[in-house]
Amino acid sequence: MRNDKLDYSDCDLAFSNCQDWLRGRLRRVAGVASRVVLMAAGLMALPGPAAAQMPPAPGTPNFWDLQRRVEKPNTAFLRVIRFITDDDYPPFGLTLRDRTLTGFNVDLARAICKELAVACTVQARRFDTIVAAIETGRADAAVASLAISPKARERLLFTHPYYRTPARFVSQRNTGPVQISPAGLAGKTIGVIAGTAHAAFLARFFPKAKPKTYRTTAALLAALKSRETGIIFGDGVTLAIWLNAAASGDCCEFRGGPYTESYFFGEGVGIAVHKNNRALKQALDFALFRLAEKGVYSELYLKHFPIGFY
Q1: Suppose 223 and one of 33, 164, 228, 230 were both cysteines; which one would form an S-S bond, judging by CB atoms 3.0 to 4.6 Å apart?
Q2: Shortest CA distance to 109 belongs to which of 287, 240, 299, 273?
Q3: Which H/E stretch holds residue 172?
Q4: How many helices (H) and strands (E) in the chain?
Q5: Statement to judge: residues 238 and 122 lie in one domain
Q6: Secondary structure percentages of the chain, helix, strand, coil, to 5
Q7: What are the tens digits of pLDDT across the range 255-300?
């Protein structure tokens, strides 16, 4: 979700191995064994046995109730879906040197169109123009890591979340066992960005920890890598991006499971359509469910997040 993200506008400098990484050729692939938060799909269910399905791959989240059978909505009206995204938020969206638009959001949009058997286009726009493009009909759907919120719902209609941004702890690899609990972290110094939901959550649920605040994500990560602080707490997506990148130097790893309390960390990220286009929203919800059911969502997640944020 778009908050406090690192500046990857210059992919070669800030994310030196991004092209190889996006092609699935990282040094290692680490599965993250963590609890999975299941969320109801909010789709119409038919009686009878569940459809054939593939369970989510180890280390991948699941946001759909795969025990349901979901009725395919009428898609006869669909001829083409004009998706828009942005290309300055790798690995969700970026343009490679050969001008190829790629990323998790881009691949997901193309998989949706394949599932619905409709043509689609995926074009990059500046992030600050995306909402207006949907409202004015210049595009049909935005798959651009737009956070679902009451304010956003005033202008747009959202699908079921296709990912959520958990909070995570990260520590140096060789620090030994770390008990991630209020008692286990009592008295320990935890790096966190000042004034964020993560700082508020840490103060509320880990009151005996000793927060050490930083102004930016870059400063927080530098402190962890240099051992100025032994453990940090922050945005799981941003941390996963860093752990997957050469910039981390393979120094660190996630500790404990994800924290997904919506009061602190939001409702998740959905695909946005025009407020009046409920038919398209239903078609996209169906496609997202089917991609999860078939294991396609897991494949795309692991392709772009070998070290996942869950």
Answers
A1: 228
A2: 287
A3: strand 167-172
A4: 11, 15
A5: no
A6: 30, 20, 45
A7: 998 999 999 999 999 999 999 999 999 999 999 999 999 999 999 9
| CA-closest candidate to residue 87, choices 122, 134, 131, 136 | 122
CB 156 within 8 A of CB 12: no
310 assigned to some structural domain:
no
Whether residue 208 sits in one domain with residue 106: no
Q: What is the pTM of this model?
A: 0.80
Domain that holds residue 192: 167-265
* Contact (Cβ atoms closer than 8 angstroms) between residue 272 and residue 125: no
Tokens of residue 44, six digits? 């119409």
Q: Residue 245 to residues 8, 147, 225, 252: CA-CA distances in angstroms? A: 12, 24, 13, 11
Joined together, the tokens standing for residue 38 give: 């299941």
Query: Same structural domain for residues 142 and 218?
Result: no
52 and 191, same domain (yes or no)? no
**Pair of tokens at residue 42:** 């909010």
Same domain, 171 and 259: yes
- Identify which of 140, 150, 147, 145 has the alpha carbon closest to the alpha carbon of residue 113: 140
Q: What is the DSSP letter of 128?
A: G
Q: At which residue do the structure tokens 């979340």 appear?
A: 161
